[in-house]
């Protein structure tokens, strides 16, 4: 079974690559943070390194900052690689056929986006003081730990599905750094300007109708990301007011 093509758009490779790299670093440093401060479900023989929590927070934050660009791309130019409205009937009807594997692989792509949204949201609900103070029973700490497991399973399925539909060459096509002339980063500025002028033409005066045309899953991701920032900024502001005695 061969994938439809082995050339991946360069913008996809950049956004996918940066998100993936930051995420993998966040997950490795997350495991080390767990190892240093917790270890209730097993421990690896790693050195106890207290600074790892801050390093994890930094990689988590980098992932949170690049993720919106990837989501924006995935639900527009990359939308065909995500689960579609007819994915569910296809998954129940054509089990084991090539179409079935492609559909499943695209649904798993969507699941990775949702898994990462959950990991980033629960990360923003964390308080950096909990683990150093030995407070390991917070609701959001458990949520954040579970998000690591969910993310690990999602990435494993993502790699397995892509290996199944296209083999190792398909997986490697995502890591290749060569690009075609029409895909050159030099043209990105013009693409962005053209997109912006089109968007302005289609009037911002009616945001409800713009939102109603977007996929529900995309809206859930945007609302979660915005809520994560608003909740954590509100908590910080309240903490600040508390320390100055207001
Ligand atoms: C080294 C690790 C990875 C490899 C080799 C890899 C490989 C691939 C490949 C080959 C595709 C194209 C699939 C298709 O055409 O249907 C793809 C798409 C995708 N990958 Fe990964 N992936 C990796 C890590 C990740 C991670 C960590 C995430 C988590 C966010 C992720 C999320 C996605 C998504 C959402 C798409 C669809 C993008 C679109 O809509 O255009 N991948 N990946
Ligand atoms: C997929 C896995 C994970 C991702 C993507 C992730 C991401 C994040 C993000 C975005 C933040 C907020 C950073 C900020 O606002 O500055 C954060 C904070 C935090 N995470 Fe994770 N995290 C993951 C797993 C874990 C795990 C398993 C632990 C267990 C020890 C953990 C421990 C923490 C702690 C203690 C904080 C607060 C530290 C700080 O804000 O500096 N994370 N994480």
Automatic annotation (TrEMBL):
The chain crosses the membrane at residues 12-34, 54-75, 99-121, 141-161, 219-241. It is found in: Cell membrane. It is a multi-pass membrane protein. InterPro entries: Cyt_b561_bac/Ni-Hgenase, Di-haem_cyt_TM. Residues 9-163 form the Cytochrome b561 bacterial/Ni-hydrogenase domain. SUPFAM superfamilies: Transmembrane di-heme cytochromes (SSF81342). This is Cytochrome b/b6 domain-containing protein. It comes from Leptothoe kymatousa TAU-MAC 1615.
